[in-house]
Design brief:
Layout: H1 7-22, E1 29-30, H2 40-56, E2 59-69, E3 75-86, E4 90-95, E5 101-105, E6 109-114, E7 119-124, H3 139-143, E8 146-150, E9 156-161, E10 168-176, E11 179-187, E12 192-202, E13 220-223
Parallel strand pairs: 1-8, 7-13
Antiparallel strand pairs: 2-3, 2-12, 3-4, 4-5, 5-6, 6-7, 8-9, 9-10, 10-11, 11-12
């Protein structure tokens, strides 16, 4: 049987991925590691690449592979699918079989569709001022909550929350060919999620219908959850 995800936590962490990857890096305070185990030139190049990528981003399509492990190292989830984004605040996460799942934000409503449960939930898409994980719509919101640190791993940036009650403990972004290639974060329960992107297409036309969702006939729709 497919494990039921906690909707708020699941969606929140995936939207947090948006903020970590696509916000303008220049708008976040920089902290330096004190042990010096990083290459300053490589760090600056990675930061500049992320900044240029996010500043120029209008649309994006990419395949992804997602895995999650718990605090003891046990693999609890392994998924793949396709991700779409259209500035300033439309997105679509489409997870593939055998556990298909769909999350769509059309700029006004946030939909979550689970075919295995024959159920869809819908609520107002929160503004960034109310939900900082949607910082794509207002990158300045994230500036007060996260700092970028260098990392000893090549071409990698570390995002550290500045607030004790942040939904993640830390996140990292690995840059390859000037684009985010891997995003990984640890939530406040110790669960580590890693997403690897491939076949990334930037600033190409996306059919607006991709960011719309109409519940199939016979599907239960729950509102406000």
């Amino acid at each position: 049987m497919k494990p039921r995800k906690a909707l708020d936590i699941s969606i929140s962490h995936r939207l947090l991925l948006f903020a970590v990857v696509f916000i303008g890096a220049a708008q976040i305070e920089t902290h330096g590691q004190v042990d010096g185990r990083f290459d300053e030139g490589e760090y600056q190049a990675s930061r500049s690449a992320l900044e240029a990528f996010s500043n120029d981003l209008e649309s994006l399509t990419a395949k992804f592979e997602q895995s999650s492990i718990d605090g003891s190292g046990y693999l609890i989830e392994q998924l793949d699918g396709v991700f779409y984004f259209q500035a300033p605040n439309q997105f679509r996460w489409a997870y593939s079989a055998p556990m298909p799942e769909l999350i769509v934000g059309d700029g006004e409503q946030l939909w979550h569709f689970d075919p295995s449960l024959e159920q869809a939930t819908v609520r107002t898409q929160p503004p960034a001022s109310d939900l900082p994980i949607l910082a794509l719509t207002d990158p300045a919101v994230m500036a007060a909550s996260y700092a970028i640190e260098p990392d000893e791993r090549p071409s990698t940036l570390r995002f550290i929350p500045t607030e004790a009650d942040a939904p993640i403990a830390e996140a990292i972004v690995q840059i390859a060919e000037g684009r985010p290639a891997v995003v990984e974060w640890v939530d406040d329960f110790g669960q580590r999620t890693r997403i690897v992107f491939s076949d990334m297409r930037v600033n190409q036309w996306i059919d607006p219908a991709i960011f719309q969702f109409a519940p199939p006939p016979g599907i239960d729709v729950l509102e406000g959850l």
